[in-house]
Amino acid sequence: MEPIDHDLANTSPPVPVTILTGFLGAGKTTLLNRILNGDHGLRAAVLVNDFGSINIDTELVVGVEDNVISLANGCVCCSLREDLVQTILETIDRPERPEYILLEASGVADPISIAMTFNNPKFLDRIRMDSITCVLDAEQVFAHPEYPALMDLKLRQIASADMLILNKVDLAGAEQVELIRRWIEDHFNNIRIVETDFCDVPYEILLAVGRFDPIQMETAGWYPGHDLDGGHAHEHGSDHHFAFEPWSYETDGLISLEALRQTARKLPGGVFRCKGIVRSAEAPDRPAVLQVVGRRVDITLMDKWNGSDPGTRIVAIGAPGSFDGMDLCQRFEACVMR
Hints:
Elements: E1 6-7, E2 15-21, H1 28-37, E3 44-48, E4 61-64, E5 68-71, E6 76-79, H2 84-92, E7 100-104, H3 111-118, E8 127-137, H4 148-160, E9 163-167, H5 169-172, H6 174-187, E10 192-195, H7 203-206, H8 214-220, E11 226-227, E12 232-233, E13 245-251, H9 257-265, E14 271-278, E15 288-293, E16 296-301, E17 312-318, H10 325-333
């Protein structure tokens, strides 16, 4: 059995980090502007190479330091310096500890080397790699065929990603989008693709915090409606700007973490994120937190249940009609120890 990824007391859990990659002009900065200017109630830290590319609403600015812009919505925008790790650690140690960090990689950067830095064991109690998310310009994917190195770079960025945001799909048109999907399928298996315009991606898909965080679900009272017999959920609310479908599962049985890990790795391609609080057979007195984004699976043992009733509660979110709720229910039921 593979070891649990982190085994730590839940005093200050690691801050999740997303590396945002994609070629120049794909829409990364548009996405970061949405986070910085959004009314989402999250303390997010956005790390960029150039403040000038960020269009922050001046009415939100409440403080400016040497390399940090503090915003009224709790977010901060930080300028990257040469020592990436030091910048990250200083950001985490701010008086208002961020709940999430987004790092914008250069448009010509290979994100794997950045991710390897954060996978150093000495950072596991402070930083958790949540995802590598790639933004792809659907209109310009096949531009400049005379430069094969450019296409190779885009393929490397897609290959490194846990999830792909296919941006500007309206400009590209349905025929181009289908051509892109076939091109990606020719090179990779089971890439999670979120289609959008203006990088208008819900926070529930992009980030591992907020209403979709299983640790916060009980206090926030946010549960998607679900039918445990069919394991199928209806869309929660009508205020989401992006069509997605939530699903949830609960059980009082003890879960095998090894079976859970294998199940999480083989979820249908239409599931963008899956998260949960799990009561495991291996450590029933300590909650295990499941985090899945794309092809990345992370299982973390927390210190204690913090007064909540021990049990397993798992939620998933994906494209409408892209998964069968009964099928998901059966997959997770198979993880229960008999």
